């Protein structure tokens, strides 16, 4: 019995020494100490041997079990250390090195210009309002004094939807929505997308406008002119000349269009950037305001046009192509 225990010991220790991975060590552990191991076989035999030999053999067998357990644990620690050293020697990362610098995104130029315009007008006391892109015929046309057969409807190249709905052709319906909701004084701007069935180098079927409306008692054309001149001067600086031209819009009277001089490729010309005027009395009637008590001015400007001047861009489509080479310049 003693000889068997000794040979189990020699055999087991040499097997443990040969092991090179934690996985194999686990398997060997169940082979050496599991229920069907040679050592267990010996322990099972103990009740059968003469009583006087049992304590010695039992003690030896238990000692062997303890020795093998220690030996396996020691080997396990050795392998863990070896694996860690291997990892440290081969996967060293120098965390003090600078990163390669991930490219960071920026705002789209249309967003930047919208925010710039809103921040100036916000400072002048205009609150920001928004309206839906799908509008009723009433808000987009009729309440703005554009009756069903009015020729101005043709100028708008409207996308018509079902049930007398349209994709809004301008941000002016936000004027109507606001006036239907509240009484004067009203001082709002409304940035957003607008839609027209039109496309060339200076027209896109979707583009952006900012609407403005100021209604109160005693608002005059002088307020309109002073406000818009101050605003445009802040926006463009002194290098761009500004000109007011008399014009026509159904929802304002008198009406003006405002042009800004701009130079691209050494050539200077005027670019129309906004329409404006005193709110037409019929518009007030449509929202149940008394046109004898209140006056006001309104304006609407095209954001793309302004971005084209500020960034000297000559093709509106560049804004929508999402060409990274173009966008990363801003
Ligand atoms: N809604 C007009 C357009 O899209 C622009 C405009 C002109 C808005 C004059 C106004 C205004 O509020 O007073 O062409």
Kindly describe this structure.
The chain folds into 2 domains: 2-90, no CATH class; 109-327, Bira Bifunctional Protein, Domain 2 (BirA Bifunctional Protein, domain 2, 2-Layer Sandwich). The protein has helices spanning 2-18, 22-33, 38-45, 54-90, 109-123, 137-140, 152-155, 173-181, 221-236, 281-286, 303-311, 324-327, and strands spanning 127-128, 134-136, 165-167, 186-195, 206-216, 242-249, 252-264, 267-279, 295-302. The chain is built from 12 helices and 9 strands. The chain has a 7-stranded mixed beta sheet with strand order 1-4-5-9-8-7-6, with helices on both faces. Strands 2-3 form a two-stranded antiparallel sheet. 3,4-dihydroxyphenylalanine binds next to β8 and β9.
SSE inventory with pairings:
Elements: H1 2-18, H2 22-33, H3 38-45, H4 54-90, H5 109-123, E1 127-128, E2 134-136, H6 137-140, H7 152-155, E3 165-167, H8 173-181, E4 186-195, E5 206-216, H9 221-236, E6 242-249, E7 252-264, E8 267-279, H10 281-286, E9 295-302, H11 303-311, H12 324-327
Parallel strand pairs: 1-4
Antiparallel strand pairs: 2-3, 4-5, 5-9, 6-7, 7-8, 8-9
Helix pairs in contact: 1-4, 2-4, 5-11
Bound molecules: 3,4-dihydroxyphenylalanine (DAH).
Residues 170, 172, 211, 249, 252, 275-277, 298-300 line the site of 3,4-dihydroxyphenylalanine.
